[in-house]
Amino acid sequence: MAAGSTLPRVRDPITWLGMGLIALTRQVGEFSLFAFQAMGWLLTRRPGRTELLLCMVEVAVQSVAVVSLTGAFIGMVIAVQTYDQFRFMQMETQLGAAVNVSIFKELGPVLAAIMLAGRIGCAMAAEIGTMKITEQIDALWALGASPMHYLVVPRFLACVLMTPLLVLFADAAGAIGGWFFAVHVLGVNDAHYWSHCLGYITTFDVLGGVFKSIFFGAAIALNACYRGFHCGAGAQGVGQAATEAFVLSFLGILVLDFFLSTFLNGLNDILYR
To answer: Which ranges constitute the DSSP H helices of 10-94?
Structure first.
């Protein structure tokens, strides 16, 4: 340390690693407490019907178009990317199985959730963050209302209930988009396309994707609300909260998808052994 300096210079990488782990542990702990508080309010007191319906409209109705459009183009992209390989192996008629298995098991739920994280998660974090820096959350406390019950619980329920519905829209749009491009553009036989599709897709595959989307919706809502409640000061803080909400929701969706897919594959082996 230079003479006359009052601040220590931390150069040891072990020290930096320790500081990072402490900060990560603190963040995980604060998020866990936030989630437990939200679950406590959810189990002890129902949210207001009007607020819940408004959140459901914002999450579901205003997202149907973009989620369906995403699903349709994903189905067509999968058809384009797999057609050449299947044609090389003279398996063009099985293109429907490859397209729909990919959509129903993985891409439909994951991409629909990512679209919601970008559209709804960022909006929730920015809205609650703005309420925090303008002291509207403090005003709720002063009026005797719980911000957790009034702000978090309706948004959490809306995401948990509406994300599976949006995933079904994305799956249906993806299946139709893949079929349209494969049959009407690439020239795959219509009957063979659907026969192979129905031969490979099971009810468990469809319900498994819907099951995963419930956890995706919960992760999006909790993370977005948490970032909003812990928003920094000013417009920069709101923007940073919205960005962090999307990035961490995106990572959370991928991590949850890995563990849930592993669990569902094991369950599928047990049920259909």
So the answer is: 13-44, 49-59, 64-88
Sequence-separated (6 or more) residues with CB below 8 Å from residue 216: 109, 110, 113, 116, 163, 253, 256, 257
Token duo for residue 87: 């044609």
Name the one residue in this structure whose structure tokens are 């939200």: 38
**234-271 and 122-133 helices cross at what angle (nearest 10)?**
140
Residue ranges of alpha helices (H) inside 103-200 are 108-116, 122-133, 136-142, 147, 153-184, 190-200
Token output for 149: 């019950």
Distance CA 48, CA 208 (A): 31
Q: How far is CA 151 from the centre of its chain?
A: 19
For the chain, give every domain's residue range: 49-271
State pLDDT tens for residues 57-66: 888 888 888 9
On the question of pLDDT at 180 being above 50, the answer is yes
Angle between helical axes of 153-184 and 203-229 (0-180°, round to 10): 140
Give the global pTM: 0.84
